[in-house]
Amino acid sequence: MIKVGIVGVGTVGTSVVQILRDNADVISARAGVDIVVKSGVVRNLNKDRGLDIILTDDVDEVVNDSEIDVVVELMGGVDEAFEVVKKALKNKKAVVTANKALLAYYRYELQEMAGTQAFEYEASVAGGIPIINALRDGLSANHIESIMGIMNGTCNYMMTKMTNEGVSYDAILKEAQDLGYAEADPSFDVGGYDAAHKLLILASIAYGIDAKPEDILIEGIENVSSDDIEFAKEFGYAIKLLGIAKKDANEVELRVHACLISQDEMIAKIDGVMNGISVVGDKVGETLYYGAGAGGDATASAVVANIIDIARSGKSAPMLGFDKPLEGSKLTLKSTDNINSKYYLRVNVSDRAGVLAKITKVFEDNNISVETMLQRPSFENSANLLISTHIAIEKDIQNMIKELELLDFVNSKPVMIRIV
Ligand code: NAP
Ligand code: HSE
């Protein structure tokens, strides 16, 4: 029998306990042993969770329990979770976590500490989709050319409802929180940080890149407005928050931001809490992974799969997929300034003679070629200019936005969305 201790019995932890109970027959048959939850840690012992496991508010009671074989960390946060996992590893427990924020900062230290001890984290990226398994094992014969996709269920749920039903940003964020999709601090979701944490984990497995969130371009969906959504619909685009990793010679570009993506693309059709990730390998070509990206049961499905793997073998493959460093073709992070893209801009201007000519002059001065331009009346005596560009370089666009902002007839900082 394998005994499990769960640190954090909230949305995901509760589902882990329930799946291990509800599906005990198939789990035991696949693992070859029974897997039972012995105890769990919570902050608030007075809350009724309807579970028949021992609960404590003392982490040490679980991580120091000699009967526990596997510690499952589902408390969230970074530093406190790091201490918990460190203690568990030190006590020779196998560890499973769904904590992408922890891994975004400490994955290499944890790999070092774990050594050959089992340390699994399938649920940390894209909830129930086995993307870590696919990338680390199924595609291990390939150089990975790109990874691109929807990696945050909350944002995708919100953008879908805002686009299809016109639901307000605040109302739909509250709904995503009530459904258990959002992080404890939802600014991690809407600010793009959660997707960035996941992208960094995937980039380590694909490219051996040790980047931190501070090193990469991260933007969220907070500035996307109904004007942008209308523009997108009119020109055949969907707006999605995407994580993008792309290899270009010896550099890798890593970025998370809202994107305008053609409605014909498969990823544009992925709606609601679903995640979808495309991985292109040099030998296999494009592969696509789709499924629920958040929510208790979907996420716990991946956590339990990791526990079953541990019960079967007792140890992991190299945690981040590389047994030794990638010599010879070491990849480095591409500077954000050098990203190439097409861009969409929304510029709110005072509606008066000569404005358009001055705006297009700023475009020309920065080497940026306009593809389409629309003018829509906004509040009194002002208008929104909705502009898309041909391919341009990020640093030119950023410079142009700064110059536009300084013009006396530009009413607010222009909003920019990259077009994929
Ligand atoms: P949650 O519902 O907020 O649950 C967190 C649990 O941890 C709660 O039971 C909480 O106790 C407990 N906890 C937090 N800090 C603690 C502390 N210092 N000492 C003892 N217990 C503590 O969070 P969740 O949604 O289940 O997410 C858990 C982890 O999974 C996070 O890392 C998250 O990023 C990740 N994840 C979540 C999802 C999802 O869809 N929800 C998907 C993928 C990954 P109380 O209940 O008493 O407050
Ligand atoms: N808050 C995350 C999301 C949970 O919405 O995708 C899954 O990692």
How is the secondary structure organized here?
Layout: E1 2-7, H1 11-22, H2 24-31, E2 35-41, E3 54-56, H3 59-63, E4 70-73, H4 79-90, E5 94-97, H5 100-114, E6 119-120, H6 131-138, E7 144-150, H7 153-165, H8 169-178, H9 187-190, H10 193-207, E8 217-218, H11 226-234, E9 237-248, E10 251-262, E11 274-281, E12 285-292, H12 296-313, E13 332-333, E14 340-350, H13 355-365, E15 370-377, E16 382-389, E17 392-393, H14 394-406, E18 415-419
Parallel strand pairs: 1-2, 1-4, 2-3, 4-5, 5-6, 8-10, 10-13, 10-18
Antiparallel strand pairs: 7-9, 7-11, 9-10, 11-12, 14-16, 14-17, 14-18, 15-16
Helix pairs in contact: 1-12, 2-12, 4-5, 5-10, 7-8
N- to C-terminal distance: 50 Å
Computed Rg = 23 Å
Small-molecule binders here are:
NADP nicotinamide-adenine-dinucleotide phosphate, L-homoserine
Characterize the biggest β-sheet.
Answer: 12 strands, mixed
Give the CATH class of the largest domain: Alpha Beta
Count every beta strand, where a strand is a DSSP E run of 2 or more residues: 18
Percentage beta strand: 25-35%
Could you say how many structural domains there are in total? 3
Tally of individual helices:
14
Q: Tell me, what's the shape?
A: elongated
| Class of secondary structure makeup | alpha/beta
> Would you identify the CATH architecture of the largest domain?
3-Layer(aba) Sandwich
Look at the structure and name the CATH superfamily of the largest domain. NAD(P)-binding Rossmann-like Domain
CATH topology of the largest domain: Rossmann fold
The level of helicity is: 25-40%
Can you give the mean pLDDT?
Answer: 95
* Unreliable sequence segments: none
